[in-house]
Design brief:
The structure is a homodimer of 210-residue chains.
Chain A lengths: L4 H19 L4 H4 L10 H25 L13 H5 L5 H21 L4 H4 L2 E4 L3 E4 H25 L26 H11 L6 H4 L7
Antiparallel strand pairs in A: 1-2
Chain lengths: 210, 210
């Protein structure tokens, strides 16, 4: 799928409501669970997205559009939110994210970007040359990645609740093979299918599907 | 995290609104994109969740609660939705899912399940003995897995839009190592971090993080 500014904004605009639906008023056990040390909880994800609104996507787009002699992006601090939000509630972060995102998309729309502007380059500290279009596409993908992460982290909190037996990893098959699997293979596949058809078994630590 | 019926219902209740926020009114390129042959689009995911409401979770819970001599579950058809929904709109599926889920949760609440009932067993065709509690936990995990899948499938539609260079897989590092990485490693890590901090690079086919 080719980059499209309107289709990108359509996705970016949804994220606050998606996080609100998934996390608004959610109990602490779900909201604060992680995947282990140095990993994000759903609460952390929302804080990280706020950091992105304040210090990443639009600030970097501004650097590109300024067309200065050195369009180098500021390095991005992935852990800024930890200190910033230590006393905040999830509710207030969800509201803040929605407000920041709405303002940033209003600004983005107001720029009425042309194909020529979308092709302008910036300099990423690690990646090198990045066009404005690639930056905006990455913003979309970044949002979606963190929605997926949030759902995955929540699912993992029920790792023990769905564990039925100390299954042998060799009995697992990827769910996508169900259609063509032999009857014998199917029973192995079912093992995955009850919990998820998207490889969640692997996330939950039942061993890698073969 | 131990199984908790109220906390489970709290998550199950959110899914229709989460899918509505993520997919309601979404353009075809996002809604119909897949990860390849025999994989689900966001449209397919909603159809699959409707199948779950009609033929999986509550019907299996009923089998368990009936305490009959053979509490064996009917096998579940993961592709029932394909024929069923071939002429449907995404909007109508989202509305139907919300209605079915609301009804099923009303029923689930009305059962006022006790710890004793939650421990009652059913017989899964592939997994063997499964308690009602494990079935309900799996329902929660299944929802979350498909939310994650939907966001991932959407992100993959922008695979080419975010591709900057044919990067060497050896330069990738998992984002979770950022905190402890050396300055030299950091530049490799940044490569992941711009697109996602959740392993999206791997999903997008840039090679496995080391």
């Amino acid at each position: 799928m080719d980059f499209d500014l309107d289709l990108s904004i359509d996705v970016l605009e949804r994220s606050p409501a998606t996080f609100r639906a998934l996390l608004g008023g959610l109990g602490e056990p779900w909201a604060r669970g992680t995947e282990g040390p140095e990993t994000f909880s759903p609460f952390d994800v929302v804080g990280h997205l706020i950091d992105g609104e304040e210090t990443d996507w639009i600030p970097r787009a501004r650097i590109i559009l300024a067309r200065g002699p050195d369009p180098r992006f500021e390095p991005y601090d992935r852990f800024r939110h930890r200190v910033r939000n230590s006393n905040r509630s999830l509710e207030s972060l969800l509201a803040e994210f929605a407000e920041l995102r709405a303002g940033n998309l209003e600004l983005l729309r107001s720029w009425k970007l042309t194909a020529r502007e979308l092709a302008l380059p910036g300099e990423h500290p690690g990646l090198g040359r990045v066009t404005l279009q690639q930056l905006l596409a990455a913003w979309v993908v970044h949002d979606l990645g963190h929605i997926a992460q949030t759902a995955r982290v929540m699912a993992k909190q029920y790792r023990d609740a769905v564990r039925i037996c100390p299954c042998s990893p060799t009995t697992w098959r990827p769910a996508r093979k169900v259609a063509s699997a032999s009857p014998q293979q199917r029973s192995g596949t079912e093992r995955v299918a009850i919990f998820s058809s998207v490889g969640l078994a692997r996330w939950l630590g039942y061993g890698s599907p073969q």
